[in-house]
Amino acid sequence: MNNIVEAADKFIFELFKDKLPNTFVYHNYTHSKRVYKSINEIIENSQFDVKDATVLRLAALLHDTGYIIKREGHEEESVKIAEKFLKEQEADKEIIEGVIKCIRATKFKDTHPNDELEKAIRDADSSHFGKDYFDEASEFLRQEYLFQNVHNYTAKEWRNENIKVLVEDHQFYTEYALKNWEPVKEENLAKLLKKRKKDKAKVQKEKVKAKLKAKYKNDSPERGIQTFYRTALRNHMKLSDIADTKANIMLSVNAIIISLVLSNLISKLDNNNYLIIPTAIFILFSAITMILAVIATRPNVTRGEFTKEDVANQAVNLTFFGNFHKMELEQYEWAIDELLKDRDYVYKSLTKDLYFLGKVLDRKYRILRLTYTIFVAGTIISLLAFAIFFYFEA
Q1: Any idea what the CATH number is for the domain that residue 91 is in?
Q2: In terms of residue numbers, what domain contains 289?
Q3: CA–CA gap between residue 392 and residue 278 (Å, rounded)
Q4: Could you read off the pLDDT of 76-108 as tens digits, one per residue?
Q5: Is the dihedral of CA 348, 350, 351, 352 positive or negative?
Q6: CA separation for the pair 16, 30 (Å, rounded)
Q7: What is the phi/psi pair of residue 327, to 5°?
Q8: Does a structural domain hold residue 217?
Q9: How far is 304 from 83, CA to CA, in rounded Å?
């Protein structure tokens, strides 16, 4: 009897190695050997005769061989493979029939074992529910479903699926399994329930936190006010930077133009008198453009001082350096302390800062518009002048 069991072990090892797809990370040789080990535990602690023990051991090794052909209905394919193998091994008819009967009993859903052999093989096949390697085996099964496109369970969905199986679909039948594996199964179930409860508490906590955050945003207009001032000030500063950049471009371009004109045309004016007036027009407009660009970026001079009366009357904007750059540090610190005591004064100062920044931007952009207009007009007039004088000279 032992010889045929050893032959079955070698047979499934070679069969799985050669023909079982590598996507079967759970239903493979390792699983079959675990079932074989579990059935031996039941046999050693039960009253099975030698023939029945052999039937159970063979069924444990051969029960999943059908997976090399298909997933759904693999039990019947396992029956065919097992029957062919056992006949080749010249096994007794009763053993072959017993193995076939046990393999069919491993159908997990919609079937119930009818005798002690079926109960034993059924418990061995699902023994991982009552083992300390339950988490590992469960994760391998989830990955197998994923790799074979059966179902892509999330960790939460898979946990709930396991809880459902352990609570509603599974039970142990043999006395040994009920005594030794059922307590471990209950521990594994308790761990899953604890994790689910913890996750529910976490989700609930996040929901409460989100509600409080939303309520705080709605009930606290301060955040909206601060966002308004922050955004408005940032936009003003960006616009100011853009204006300065445009003015610098005008300065650089016209400086280059004047340099080129002076170095190339001045020396030719003695022999080409008709170029004097167009060149003068060109240089004049370039010079005006440079002057306007300088005016656009020229800072205003402020007195840089304030009095206690100014602070008391909220008549000074302490956010602008031009109003305090000549004051002593102690005086400025005192003024800031007074400012921070009054929320309305703070917002009033920020409003003033926005307003006067807007006034400065208005001045800059009006001058820049005039600068660009003169530059374009000067370029056109200069080119026309060159063309006209060149035409009449020719």
Answers
A1: 1.10.1300.10
A2: 222-393
A3: 13
A4: 999 999 999 999 999 999 999 999 999 999 987
A5: positive
A6: 10
A7: -85, 155
A8: no
A9: 103
226 and 201 both lie in a single domain: no
Can you tell me whether residue 307 is helix, strand or coil? Answer: coil
Largest CA-CA distance found in the chain, in angstroms, rounded: 130
Dihedral angle computed from the Cα positions of residues 143, 146, 151 and 155, in that order, rounded to the nearest 10 degrees: 50
Give the pLDDT confidence score for residue 321 in this predicted structure: 67
Q: Is the pLDDT of residue 15 over 80?
A: yes
Q: Is residue 130 part of a domain?
A: yes
**Token duo for residue 126:** 């699902």
Distance between CA atoms of residues 266 and 345, nearest Å: 61
**Any idea which residue has 């610190």 for tokens?**
333
d(CA 169, CA 180): 19
Query: What is the rounded distance in angstroms from the CA atom of residue 25 to the CA atom of residue 268?
Result: 90
Distance between CA atoms of residues 173 and 182, nearest Å: 10
pLDDT tens per residue, range 257-285 = 888 877 776 666 666 667 778 778 888 88
Please state the domain count of the chain. 2
pLDDT class of 252 with cuts at 50, 70, 90: confident
Give residue-wise pLDDT tens across range 108-147.
776 788 899 999 999 999 999 999 999 999 999 999 999 9
The SS3 assignment for 83 reads: helix
- Both 256 and 191 in one domain: the answer is no
SS3 of 48, please? coil
The answer to whether 233 and 353 are in contact (CB under 8 A) is yes
Q: Which pTM value belongs to this model?
A: 0.55
Per the CB < 8 A criterion, the answer to whether 142 and 153 are in contact is yes
* 66-76 pLDDT tens trace: 999 999 889 99
Both tokens of residue 13? 């090892």
Written as six digits, the tokens of 71 are 């997933």
| Same-domain status, 196 and 289 | no
Which residues are CB-contacts of 179 (< 8 A; sequence separation ≥ 6)? none
Compute the Cα dihedral for 81, 83, 87, 91 and give only its sign: positive
